[in-house]
Specification:
Subcellular location: Membrane
Radius of gyration: 22 Å
Order of helices and strands: HHHHHHHHHHHHHHHHHHHHHH
Structural class: mainly alpha
Family: Belongs to the purine-cytosine permease (2.A.39) family.
Protein name: Purine-cytosine permease family protein
InterPro entries: Pur-cyt_permease, Pur-cyt_permease_Fcy2/21/22
Largest sheet: none
Membrane topology: Multi-pass membrane protein
Number of strands: 0
Shape: globular
Length: 484
């Protein structure tokens, strides 16, 4: 969508005026998927730490940590899987470097990978649909905590109250998303500090009761153990792999910002809280039944702190969903919907609220969405691998203005609007992953290996290798590598 912001005045004063107009916390962000000129760039890579930290202190991380123990792993195997799975946050960190290079969000940068028209399909499925599903699941998790908080206040959580709670949480989330990048950068540092304080209390309570020598009565071994370890790693890694949109939050940084700093602050901000919160879930599972994490954890916490804990769960989920809704809005624009970013965000929120209300109040729809996301893992791994490979092949050199050109004369139009290398690498990578998967169904390779699910490494390696092979003589890539 073309920017409606007038050209800035020359000199530092003009740049500052443009910055105030386009990325001020108290004003709705004007930019959508359009190019961010260098005169409007600002900030430091360290700001990314709190953005990703606030988004990763959340309820689902506790649930996943507890699930690792419930699956049959001992405590330290669960912790090891948590660490290994969260190392995948290095990939969103790498992708974030493309934001300042192009002055554009991920939803536009991937035109270099799939072509102008091919990228619309990528954004519709790998961007918008996945984001809305995650929004609905996270909103359901936050609503469950809020229902308990309402009950503690002496209010019966009947259907009208539940609807009101869901709408209020969604509204708070969408306010952050609509105001956009400037508010996210300003707000997420205090949110990180508040959540860190709350979860420090949770950590003390959990560690007091944890059994540090915990092991299941029947410990798995051999192929069964490897199957569990790989399944757990895939479950943890699905979080970072779903964030192929990390450039959305780094694109306002100056082009000269250190790439190492961008990778480091982005990855560290997500890695540290994810490891800590997931590990707390695993430690808690050695003392209480984490099949109902919210109720179980309340048994370990001081009574006065339970309402604070429930509020922290809601706040953490609002933080992660605000990022999800923000990127979903950009994805909808990149699909070709010619509306302002704020309007697309509100539309995404309305869809997610409808799915959540239907899932919590009418049917088991959210279970269906959760199951669909398990299968989507075969897609997000290759998506991440292809994008990361493109960043490396181009040495993170992107022409943001050329990427904004959607006409047939664009350098990234490729063949009929599609880059055959990106499309083929993704399709082959997803197919290879599907043959190895063992979630809702068992692929033939997984069956031959006794249930060991290699879909994540196989899908990513095949997609990355094929893309690198097919792009070796691409003129846009060679031009990028030839830049001084």
């Amino acid at each position: 969508m073309a920017s409606t912001i007038p050209d800035p005045l020359p000199g530092p004063q003009g740049a500052q005026a443009a910055l105030q107009d386009t990325d001020r916390p108290g004003r709705i962000e004007a930019h959508g998927i359009d190019h961010i000129p260098e005169s409007e760039r600002h900030g430091h890579p360290r700001e990314l730490f709190s953005v990703w930290a606030a988004a990763n202190v959340n309820y689902l991380s506790l649930v996943i940590g507890g699930a690792l123990v419930l699956m049959g792993l001992n405590l330290w195997q669960a912790v090891a899987v948590t660490v290994v799975g969260n190392l995948f946050w290095l990939l969103p960190g790498l992708l974030a470097t493309s934001g300042p290079a192009a002055g554009a969000p991920s939803e536009v940068i991937t035109r270099a990978v799939y072509g102008v028209l091919g990228n619309r399909v990528n954004n519709a499925v790998g961007g918008w649909l996945v984001s809305v599903c995650y929004f609905a699941l996270n909103l359901a998790a936050a609503a469950t905590a809020a229902f308990a908080l309402v009950e503690k206040a002496g209010i019966t959580a009947d259907t009208p109250v539940k609807v009101a709670v869901i709408v209020v949480i969604a509204a708070l989330t969408l306010i952050i998303s609509v105001y956009g990048h400037g508010l996210i950068i300003r707000l997420y540092l205090p949110i990180t500090l508040v959540l860190a304080g709350a979860f420090t209390v949770v950590a003390f309570a959990v560690l007091r009761h944890a059994d540090f020598s915990y092991a299941p009565a029947e410990q798995p071994g051999g192929v069964e153990l490897w199957a569990l370890l790989l399944a757990g790693t895939t479950m943890i890694a699905s979080g970072p792999l779903s964030y192929t949109t990390s450039a959305d939050f780094s694109r306002y940084l100056p082009r000269t910002a250190s790439k190492k700093a961008i990778i480091g602050w982005n990855a560290l901000g997500a890695f540290l809280p994810s490891v800590v919160v997931c590990s707390l879930g695993a430690f808690a599972a050695t003392a209480v039944d984490m099949t109902d994490p919210q109720t179980a954890l309340q048994e370990l916490l001081p009574g006065w702190f339970v309402p604070v804990f429930l509020l922290a769960l809601v706040l953490g989920t609002i933080s992660i969903n605000a990022l999800t809704a923000y990127s979903a809005g950009l994805a909808l624009q990149a699909v070709g919907l010619r509306v302002r970013r704020s309007v697309s965000v509100l539309f995404d929120g309305a869809v997610a609220v409808a799915l959540t209300l239907y899932g919590l109040l009418v049917s088991n729809f959210l279970d269906t969405v959760s199951n669909a996301l398990q299968v989507i893992t075969v897609l997000i791994g290759p998506l991440m691998a292809v994008y990361a490979t493109d960043v490396l092949l181009r040495r993170c050199r992107y022409d943001g203005l050329a990427l904004s050109d959607e006409t047939p004369g664009s350098p990234f139009w490729y063949t009929a609007g599609v880059n055959p290398a990106g499309a083929l690498a993704l399709v082959v990578g997803v197919t290879a992953a599907a043959l190895c998967v063992n979630t809702l169904y068992t692929g033939p390779i997984a069956a031959a290996l006794g249930g060991v699910d290699l879909s994540l490494p196989v899908g990513m390696v095949v997609a990355a290798a094929l893309y690198a092979l097919l792009m070796r003589k691409d003129r846009t890539l060679l031009a990028a590598r030839a830049e001084a």
